[in-house]
Amino acid sequence: MSQHRRSTSEVSAKTSVHHMAPRKSQRTGKAKRKVKFSKAKEGSLWHVFKAPIKHLRQAPMRGQAKTSDYNGRYIDIKDVKCWDDFITPEEVEALWMDNPDLKTIFERRLKPAETGKILTAAPVTGGLRDEHALELEWHSVHHQLNLALKLCAEAMGSSGHVMIGPGSNAQKISSDAEPDAHRKRPDFAVYLYLDDSQYNGDNVKQVDNRVPGDAKQFRAIRRSMLPPDGKDFNKKNRNLKAIKVLSQIHGYMDRHEARYGYILNNEELVFLRRRDTGWGQLDISPAIRHDVEADAENGILNSKYALFYFLHQVANDDSPSGWRLQSFGTETQDEAPRQRVSSIAFRKEAKAKATWLQVGKEKLVKLFGSMANFL
Description:
Blueprint: H1 8-15, H2 45-50, E1 80-82, H3 89-97, H4 100-107, H5 112-115, H6 131-155, E2 161-166, E3 188-193, E4 213-215, H7 240-255, E5 260-264, E6 268-274, E7 282-284, E8 288-289, H8 303-314, H9 343-374
Parallel strand pairs: 1-7, 4-5
Antiparallel strand pairs: 2-3, 5-6, 6-7, 6-8
């Protein structure tokens, strides 16, 4: 494989934006950065990233949405905390606004040969009935991100660059991962690309997945259902879906020794951060919407901005405070208790909800029938 002309840690240092302790997100008012905010030029890479994503809406369907099977170790939802100092759109724009080389890349109009490599308008699509359909439609966003990451790496003098792609492209698993961690893999991988030989045979088993991600249907799982502050989350309930989904992405992060990971659905992106205090210790970001235009001046973050930050700034950082965090998969039973959530329990909960809805429907029919007779 070809080698970097400059190390990824040097590249990260040159960008000079420390990602481990960003300012607390500003939910009101304007950002504090003492610069004049600029508008992105149409046809530029900046304009591409600011633009909303509006073609991922799920198909209308009835019934309970399914999530993929998971048979690994479960986390305790009491260990999930809010990620209060999550990144701001201002910090994302600082990656190129404060770096002359990257500023040129982001502000100039893309060349015809570059625009030919990406899709910038909403495609003609439909029928996003399941997770696989969502993954396929999301690939157009990967192409935009990969073009930006390649151009940035070239501007920074690196022969290799971070890429985002299918989970099968980066299969290295920690020796400390929980038993049978190899049986399933995440939908998405963020990895260092050097040359095509890394995709051959078992070479993919030597490639780190630096920020694993997983796709879910919005109707199956969304930020409002997740602890500790989701509006649809009730700590008195069993919250089986939330436990299952968070355990799954945490398991992927742990086995790949990744500090960060994310969940993607049809409408939003949710980032997670493992804490270094043991198994199941997670910080969870607010929901980051796809369908909004990023606006640093007004504090609006969209999913492309957030992903670019973590791919360019975090995944390039090989320092001890960067993307890597040791696996805790081999902790003993006492140190990391297992909470098995069986498929039977999920079916019972789904059946109970369906029964409750049917009873409510029958009561409404009787009520309206009585009102009609009265009138």
